[in-house]
Amino acid sequence: MKRILKRTIGAGTFVRPRLIIKFSNKHVYIQCINDSIGITMFSLTTNIKPLKLFKFNNCLILSKYLGIFVGKELIRRSIHRIKFDRSVKKYHGNIKIFLESIRLYINV
Known about the structure:
Blueprint: H1 2-9, E1 18-23, E2 28-34, E3 39-45, H2 49-52, H3 59-76, E4 83-85, H4 94-102
Parallel strand pairs: 1-4
Antiparallel strand pairs: 1-2, 2-3
GO molecular function: structural constituent of ribosome
Keywords: Ribonucleoprotein, Ribosomal protein
Family: Belongs to the universal ribosomal protein uL18 family.
């Protein structure tokens, strides 16, 4: 119930969309969602060709690279503020490094 309430209060808009990150065992999935009209503005995964070329031995390096990639994509789409939805994950490790590298480009 808390998660449902939190999501409805912190819903993303066109000006400030919601950014979701999910770590699986093998890949990372990122989505930027506009909840007011219910569309995904863009999505990114480590399955895409430019990221498959790199072999990341360390997940922290991958998180930093993905944060830079997402930050540049948000600037390209003229999005300067986001709401970050970390779900039930704590703010440390991969999540922290990912957000710090996005903060180089936009306000979170």
